[in-house]
């Protein structure tokens, strides 16, 4: 039986039941990925898929190396000012010597637009798709605007936040709050397939990936 035949058979069964009952819907979805969460293999796969999406990935082994990695990325980009969520670990910025603007109270859109970059953490990352998710209620990630208005986003992701598949990521997230899914720098293409970056968010994305190298 083809997929089309199966769909039509279900529609006929529903019609014949007169709407009083519905045929059972299979829910045998794959809920786990092929790589263990937080494993070296999952982190390596995330590195690969993020890079494929034109994000720059910077691998460090421990969180002690995060401040230097962030400072190097910002220095390379010429960022003299950054915005950070109120709960970002202060230790992450000890090597950065530019202006740090904390989004608390919330900065105006004009202030965000005048800031060179934003530095955040991440809630979860999906190795199979090269996607990470920001939870607006998390103190190290902050409200959605700070990750969309500045032209450069630096995100720190820990290995224990890396899962293989989308179902695993969704199981870790609370859908009742604002979530932002990020797959590479903001980009779009017109009908001629000319790629334009920075239309709906940052045109540059750097990910500091903390875990086994």
From TrEMBL:
The lineage of its organism: Bacteria, Bacillati, Actinomycetota, Actinomycetes, Pseudonocardiales. Pfam families: LUD_dom (PF02589). This is LUD domain-containing protein. Residues 13-36 are annotated as: Disordered. It comes from the Bacteria. Residues 114-210 form the LUD domain. InterPro entries: FTHF_cligase-like_sf, LUD_dom, NagB/RpiA_transferase-like.
């Amino acid at each position: 039986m083809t997929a089309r035949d199966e769909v039509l058979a279900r529609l006929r069964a529903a019609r014949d039941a007169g709407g009083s009952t519905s045929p059972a819907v299979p829910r045998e979805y794959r809920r786990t990925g092929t790589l263990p969460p937080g494993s070296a293999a999952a982190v390596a796969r995330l590195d690969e898929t993020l890079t494929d999406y034109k994000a720059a990935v910077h691998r460090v082994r421990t969180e002690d190396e995060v401040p230097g990695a962030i400072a190097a990325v910002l220095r390379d980009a010429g960022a003299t000012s950054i915005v950070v969520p109120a709960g970002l670990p202060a230790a992450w910025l000890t090597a950065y010597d530019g202006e740090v603007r904390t989004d608390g109270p919330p900065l105006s859109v004009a202030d965000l637009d005048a800031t060179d970059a934003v530095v955040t953490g991440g809630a979860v990352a999906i190795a199979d798709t090269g996607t990470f998710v920001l939870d607006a209620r998390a103190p190290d990630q902050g409200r959605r605007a700070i990750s969309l208005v500045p032209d450069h986003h630096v995100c720190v992701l820990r290995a224990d936040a890396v899962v293989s598949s989308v179902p695993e990521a969704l199981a870790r997230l609370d859908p009742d709050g604002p979530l932002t899914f990020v797959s590479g720098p903001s980009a779009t293409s017109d009908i001629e397939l000319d790629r334009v970056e920075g239309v709906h968010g940052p045109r540059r994305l750097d990910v500091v990936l903390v875990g086994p190298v």
